[in-house]
Amino acid sequence: MTITLTKGQRVSLDKVAPGLTEVFVGLGWDVKAMDTGFDFDLDASVFLLGSNEKLLSDNHFIFYNNLTSPDSNKSVQHTGDNLTGAGDGDDEVIKINLRSCPAEVQKIIITVTIHEAAERHQNFGQVQNAFVRVVNAQTSQEVVRYDLVEDYSIETALVMAEIYRKDGEWRLNAVGSGYQGGLKALLDRYS
Questions:
Q1: Residue 114 and residue 126 in contact, taking contact as beta carbons nearer than 8 Å
Q2: Locate the TerD domain: which residues (predicted)?
Q3: Whether the predicted pLDDT of 87 surpasses 60
């Protein structure tokens, strides 16, 4: 059974899916019917943070040009860039092995940005049906889902969710925070 969250809600992954060790985080979206003269290219990225809420290193920023985390187990893997977002279902996927994720990773920030948003005059107000979901990789069962319903008419970067450690367990927070300035705004926040 899927737990559906609203903005700001938190849930213990251990309580809603006991024994959960491997997940994939699916992100999806649709572009509203409008013509900006350019295709929309949304990009999922992951920031692996330490206890100070900052990136552990540049290699702990996982995106289409750095697909795997630097630990020997490659515990976080981006499956690749979807340039159009066309079709139903997940547009981009991040695989996370919660069991082998190094202890220094205290928080996993899941974000989406619009590639070249300023140049293309695009923002998240032109996107609809955006969601993030956590799926048990072993059973393919959706565990948690968060559908964004807010209007982000000036934002070009979104923090969708964060998976974090608390009291020895993994939890998920449905963040839904928008930023102006695209990927650079997020890099400034977490570096």
A1: no
A2: 1-190
A3: no
